[in-house]
Queue: 2 jobs
Job 1
Amino acid sequence: MPFEAKKFIVQAEEDIRERMGKDHAITAVSGGVDSFVAATLAARAVPGQLHIVYVDNGLMRKDETGKVKAVAKALGVDLKVVDARKRFLDALKGVIEPETKRKIIGEAFVRIFEDEAKATDVKFLIQGTIAPDWIESGGMGRDTIKSHHNVGGLPEKMHLKLCEPLRELYKHEVRLVGKELGLPESIHQRQPFPGPGLAVRIVGEITEEKIHIVQEACDIAENEIDAAVAAKKMERPWQYFAALLPSKTVGVRGDERAYQYTVIVRAVRSLDGMTANFSHIPPEVLERISTRITNEIRTVGRVVYDITNKPPGTIEME
């Protein structure tokens, strides 16, 4: 039976009202489609009972905080921005293992929301959790593919109750709901971004230098692919970005030896993120991405393109 966005919205709003009653909630907004759709549903269901919070963890896309503020203002959302960059980077210092990263990030988010809740009479945390998040996080006989920060990364003891209105939906269904709610296309069609942010696009230890490299490389890859799509040179992938490998390779800068980082570009076609095929990007687009990254990010000396499907790979690096 086809998914009906209108019918879902009516039921979701009723469920939110029934679950929350007169209690207040912190609504976590990250800038992505899932969190904005969840926040919009909650705002319609229980107006006046929400405290909408965006946490800048230092692991977001380039200029993301400014963009989230602008969208919130355009939508008339009273958004509180919490600068937690130092808190996250300190907690992740020296951490290499991907699952450990995810759990550290998940707990840090919750503790920040709990801190915010202390100032008000807040009982609930509203998240944009969707079906792939809890499916891939494992449990109930399922293997853990990766612990999503908002599911498997949550601490065992929390002082806030969860409200997850999108929990049974897949990404394409969330997009339909966002469109039906009247959210701008820039939100309901925005490409996915991982909850742990760039932490899972930096293979190995996270440093401020590496964050800067990935922010710039992602921005270049996204802009060049967007331009190619606009010029009708290719179809828009479901998700596309750049990531950083931990090892360096030898290259040449001018007439001198260089020992620099390797950036990996990834673009995939998918419906719901559960499976994916790599996108066939025109060679001239890849060449443009590679040239810009190595010219504009002087600590990167090599760019490669990932042609791995899911499975056996995952979409993100970690």
Job 2
Amino acid sequence: MRKALMSLALLLSLPAASWANYLDHEQAKPFTDRMVSEHGFERSRVEALLAQAERKQSILDAIARPAERTLEWKDYRRIFIQESRIEQGVEFWREHRDTLERAHKEYGVPPQIIVAIIGVETRYGRHKGNYRVLDALATLGFDYPPRSKFFGKQLEEYLLMTREQSLDPLDLKGSYAGAMGFGQFIPSSYRSFAVDFDGDGVADIVNNPVDAIGSVANYFARHHWRQGEAVVLAADVAKQHDAEVFEAGLKPKWSVAQLADKGVRSYAQLDGDAMASAIRFIGDEGEEHWLGLHNFYVITRYNHSSMYAMAVYQLSQLVAQRYTQ
């Protein structure tokens, strides 16, 4: 296994010496053929785009060390829960109050959750990413074997998305993983969940905060956010608790009553039939234990990380508290 990992690391670090651009890559022709035969693209158009796509080693380096895998909660939290981000969230809420209220009414998603998602993702649009999306998706789709199938599909979705929205695929910038706009949608999410919330005929989540707000709300509604329900609750653990419950993944697997029987109990009163996941973090004062409820799981559909979901939730609470002061 160690040799295999070393070989993969070496592969990812090598320059693309065998091709001058992605048009010369061995996967370019199958990709182009698919775009032509399945989606009606002109071959010359796809080839021209691949010829201009650039391999970025910094993208391969970044995806190899995501914060969710390298940081404990106490450190991860400091990245996203800051005074400046809270205050900027209040400003964003005040500036877009009417849009957030309309999104809440239409989709049932509270303003503070929408604001917190945009705050965690891009500091309310201040940091949307500096990589060309074409470069990011080509690099990961063609030169990142562990997830080449996924990112190759995102490159396909990206070309479809830019055609549908009349956008130039050479212009858009985003994250190292090809996520775009205020809410950092990957291309498949853009195509599935982006909405034209201001009625101008274009679903523009890259430059239009109104469309971005509506699109984030739509994403949560489509993933079955339950209006008015709790998100996550602090829990206590018995000395003889079942530690395996903390390794069961993000999706709620046990009822609150079952978790109590396993030694993990919420401090708050909950319906014993409610489903929850057990979460353990390393915080500033040691271990923290939580019960993640249905809406917590919905947040993890945006980013499959319990720390991400907790950062969004805690930021949402702090921004809401400051907003109402």
